Amino acid sequence: MTTRTTPASLLRVFIGESDEYRGRPLHEAIVLKAREMGLAGATVLRGPMGFGRSSRLHTSKILRLSEDLPLVIELVDGEAKIEALIEALHPMLGSALVTLEAVRVVRYGHDGGLN
C-alpha cells in the first residue's frame, strides 16, 4: 500500500515567553494572525531549557526560575499560505529565529488532506 502525501511547508518561530507585540504575548499574536489568515494549524511548544543568540541560558529549574522560557511556534500549510504568513509576521518578529522547511502531510483531519 502506498501512502498518499501532500506537499506542504513547516514554519518554526523560536521566541521567548516574555516577547510581546503591541501589548500582547507574541506567541498569541502569531497564532491569532495564522488563524485569521486561514492556515491549517499552529502549535505553541514551551521548552524547559534553551539559549539563543545572546547565549543567555533560560531554564525552568526550581532554583532558578526563568520568566522567559523558550517557545517554538510550529505552523503547517501549503507553501503559498506560509509565504504570505511570513510576510505578515515580519513586523512582529524582532530577534526571533525563523526556519522553513518542506514537509509531506500524511494526514490532516478526517479526510486526510490539507484542503
Order of helices and strands: EEEHEEEEHE
Runs with pLDDT <50, length 5+? Answer: none
Tally of discrete structural domains: 1
| Strand-residue proportion | 35-45%
Write the CATH fold name: Alpha-Beta Plaits
Number of strands: 8
What global shape is seen? globular
Strand order of the largest sheet: 4-7-1-8
How many helices does DSSP assign? 2
How much helicity do the residues have? 10-25%
Please tell me the overall pLDDT.
88
Rounded to the nearest angstrom, the distance between the terminal CA atoms is 23 Å
> How would a crystallographer describe the biggest sheet?
4 strands, antiparallel
State the CATH class.
Alpha Beta
| Alpha-beta classification | alpha+beta
Radius of gyration: 16 Å
What is the compact description of this entry?
Helices cover 19% and strands 37% of the residues.
Features:
2 helices; two-stranded antiparallel ribbon; Alpha-Beta Plaits; globular; 19% helix
Task: Report what the structure shows.
This is DUF190 domain-containing protein. It holds the Pfam family DUF190. Belongs to the UPF0166 family. It comes from Neoroseomonas eburnea. The protein has 115 residues and is an alpha+beta fold. It has a single domain, classed as Alpha-Beta Plaits. It contains two helices and eight strands, in the order E-E-E-H-E-E-E-E-H-E. It has helices at 26-36, 79-89, and strands at 6-16, 20-21, 24-25, 41-46, 49-50, 58-59, 70-77, 97-105. Strands 4-7-1-8 form a four-stranded antiparallel beta sheet, with helices on one face. Strand 2 and strand 3 (24-25) form a beta hairpin. The two termini are 23 Å apart.
